[in-house]
Fold this protein.
Amino acid sequence: ASCVQYRLVVRDVKTLQILQLYTCLDQIQHIEWSSDSLFILCAMYKRGIVQVWSLEQPDWHCKIDEGSAGLVASCWSPDGRHILNTTEFHLRITVWSLCTKSVSYIKYPKACQQGIAFTKDGRYMAVAERRDCKDFISIFVCSDWQLLRHFDTETQDLFGIEWAPNGCVLAVWDTCLEYKILLYSLDGRLLSTYRAYEWSLGIKSIAWSPSSQFLAVGSYDEKVRILNHVTWKKITEFEHPATIANTKTIVYKEVEKSPSVETERLSFPPARALASSLFSTQSKYDISQVPVSLQYIKPVADRANPKMGIGMLAFSPDNCFLATKNDNIPNAVWIWDIQKLKLFVVLEQLCAIQSFQWDPRQPRLAVCTGNSKVYLWSPAGCVSVQVPMEGDFQIASLSWHSSGDSMVLLSKDNFCVCYLEREEV
């Protein structure tokens, strides 16, 4: 699904044929599929309205109007039959049921980066709350929205919450002004508290491993610390220096090359497809000899949100690799071997990393850097792929299909679908 101002377009993934076209009341600012892909939600935050469309019954439609309360966020519950709307100023979360048309309210949700978290099985929801100048967590049962647990957290200014994939442990982390991560059980018991240091900017990003055995914590000191699920103590830390000296680390460096054109194929004026490839610079990867010095940017110390520290973290679906980005070294992706707890590969790009995401089915990482190329890494090697489009198509973000056979590449005004051929085993 994609939206063009107030129009919602639903296409077939394989053929890109338009299956449905819906017209909303205003410009769409957020779209989201229900978990079973039968409904799609369109939020118009400026108007305080959510519209829901059915794929099975195109004539059926639903409109939720928050009225004067306003709307700043909207999402599906895991069952795909309830919608959670957060009102302006985070006064409350309204839970709307599509089946019974009933409404429930959750008071005092906290305005933070990640204030709502569902367990992977969809049974429980944790909500960060702020009341009487203190942080609290409420855990709800998603089947009937009954409160299971309510407890206060030992945080100064809670910044985010995230469940482990197995749904047994909730990670809660504090504002970047204080390095503190707290781990709570489903019944609200504090299992452990971890602090790496004090009196300096703290946690910037976290990621659970798919097996729930490891918690990776990225911080402003340019390190990733890996905590284990038994004692919740640090088992190792990964540093991100500007010089790669270890001879066992492979460094792939992106280099530009001019496209070679056979003179027999040249015609004047050149064919449009050939013209676009003629004047677009192509790139490939070379393996650099270590030691390698990476481009390092010294952050501006007197600005808010300095570009430093570990801004992105992601585990591969098989639990074997961890990809990281250190914002001080914006052009590099670091890939760590989790079995050996060592640096495995560094990808050194020509432009700053915008986004990366693992293939959901295998250890294959897709990277984009704001140009018209998508980069793919797997243990077998590395490749740069030019998007065959006319004009300037700058990829800002990407998203894999759940099958791993295709991905959507998004620019500011366009999108394209990249199809990957599956290797025959």
